[in-house]
Design brief:
This protein is α/β, with parallel strands linked by helices and 461 residues long. The protein folds into 2 domains: 174 residues, 2-Layer Sandwich (VC0802-like), CATH 3.30.2130.30; 242 residues, Rossmann fold (3-Layer(aba) Sandwich). It is built from 13 helices and 16 strands. The strands form 3 sheets. Strands 2-3-1-4-7-6-5 form a 7-stranded mixed β-sheet. 35% of the residues are buried. Its EC number is 2.1.1.214. Its main location: cytoplasm. Belongs to the class I-like SAM-binding methyltransferase superfamily. TRM11 methyltransferase family. One of its GO terms (biological process) is methylation.
Length: 461
């Protein structure tokens, strides 16, 4: 039998909440039931769990959870709330005798004045709690939350609109979210080694949760850069392997590699198995199904563009390159741009080859807001790979989507060749009629970004 719980979320990254809690539930072997369709614009959500311990597990691991409460009721008025709460007497009656307690009355998008906080607390007098009121260390904490509409961008008096809430929620605190402080712990500005492409702490933690990072897991980042995903996945207990086409990003300028120095700062350097320099399209892997997850933020050309080995244009007049030149200088192989749409397609193929059955590929994909369609993500899929989450971080005219793909097949596939082959625009995908072409919004993203996302035919003014 499932019981309802009130989840209170941090009012950030709304699109990431449900994928995160579902991932942590899967990691710990339990399920979550939705009694109603979740509304990501609101910080409150009622979900059903089989055990109170499951709520504690989620509160201790999910980055976006502020607190979880045993759910007693809600209403558009306090009269409705009290009726709902009386119907849950079997849940709270055991606390009536000999239980110290504390009431918290707070609001979202509003500040409740103290005099009315007292009124609200007194309105629950029918619960007849006989224990002591303990404001410092109570046996239970009861939370009452008033939800108000957003008034951002408007000027108003301090308590204007007090009492005009959309809904009021009530429950007993199970556990405060203890994972959110990790955002400060992994703050890039406090890190010993970082670069201009380092992923912000909150996003790298969310990505680690999507990858199901945990002890016994082996996780790979093929575009590791300065190692933002290495620290968070290793912190959650996973073993980490990273590679990049540019070894300077991983090493830094000191004798000890920068990623190892930063990992030592977080006490996880022993979980960084190795860091290698190679092009992901010319990788050294000789067998597949090695990793439990692949997690990465591929370069898409805003701060750094993706590269792969090869020349931009073939020059028959140039002498053939040799790894050992006449003056014995280090050989630097030529590179050429790696178009984002091709990179995304190749990344999925690489994931199918390197992931164990059931393994996850977690990566960011930038898109143009006005051009994006749901089918865009499916243009890069291949047989045996399925999208299970697609969350948007919105920046206005563009955004980036955290895409989570699961390997659904146990069939063994050969190593991908990474040939351009069929163009992205002509690939057959679900939802697009055969014979028609579909150009995903992330194709030529770099050019669109520096052109200011102007539509075709639109000129500068």
């Amino acid at each position: 039998m499932r019981d309802p719980y009130l989840f209170v979320f941090a009012q950030v990254h709304e699109d990431f909440r449900v994928p995160e809690i579902l991932s942590i539930a899967e990691l710990n072997g339990f399920t979550i039931a939705f009694s109603e369709s979740p509304d990501p614009s609101r910080p409150f959500m009622v979900l059903e769990l089989e055990d109170e311990q499951h709520a504690r597990i989620l509160a201790r691991r999910c980055i976006l959870i502020k607190a979880i409460y045993e759910y007693y009721g809600r209403g558009s008025t306090y009269e409705e709330l009290h009726e709902a709460n009386k119907g849950k007497r079997h849940l709270w009656s055991r606390y009536i005798k000999n239980t110290s307690f504390k009431f918290n009355v707070t609001a979202h998008n509003h500040t409740v004045p103290q005099w009315r906080q007292r009124e609200v607390v007194e309105s629950f007098s029918y619960m007849d709690f006989q224990g002591e009121i303990d404001m410092k260390n109570p046996d239970i904490i009861l939370g009452c939350f008033e939800e108000y509409p957003s008034r951002s961008g408007t000027t108003r008096e301090k308590h204007e609109g007090d009492g005009d809430f959309i809904q009021v929620w009530f429950g007993r605190l199970i556990e405060d979210g203890s994972a959110r402080p990790l955002v400060k712990k992994f703050d890039v500005k406090k890190r010993l080694y970082y670069g201009n492409t380092s992923m912000e702490a909150e996003m790298s933690l969310l990505m680690a949760n999507q990858s199901l990072a945990s002890p016994g897991k082996l996780i790979y980042d093929p575009f590791v850069g300065t190692g933002s995903m290495a620290y968070t996945t290793a912190y959650f207990g996973a073993q980490f392997f990273g590679s990049d086409i540019d070894g300077r990003q991983m090493r830094g300028k000191e004798k000890q590699p920068g990623i190892i120095r930063a990992a030592a700062q977080y006490g996880v350097s022993s979980r960084i198995l190795d860091l290698c320099t190679f092009d992901v399209t010319h990788d050294p892997w000789r067998c597949g199904e090695l990793f439990d997850a692949i997690i990465t933020d591929p370069p898409y050309g805003v701060r750094a563009g993706a590269k792969r080995l090869g020349r931009k244009k073939y020059r028959p007049d140039l002498p053939r390159s040799s790894p050992a030149s006449i003056d014995d200088q280090p050989y630097i192989p030529p590179t050429k741009p790696y178009e984002l749409a091709e990179l995304a397609k190749d990344l999925v193929l690489l994931g199918r080859y390197l992931l164990k059955p059931g393994g996850r590929l977690v990566f960011f994909l930038p898109t143009v807001t006005d051009e994006y369609q749901e089918v865009d993500v499916h243009t890069m899929l291949c047989e045996g790979m399925e999208v299970i989450a697609n969350s948007l971080q919105d920046f206005g005219s563009w955004g980036r989507r955290l895409v989570t793909v699961r390997k659904t097949t146990a069939e063994t596939y050969p190593a991908p060749s990474f040939d351009a082959g069929i163009s992205m625009a002509s690939r057959a995908v679900d939802g697009v009629e055969e014979g028609t072409s579909h150009v995903p919004a992330h194709q030529d993203f770099r050019r669109k970004y520096f052109e200011g996302f102007r539509k075709t035919g639109e000129s500068d003014k």
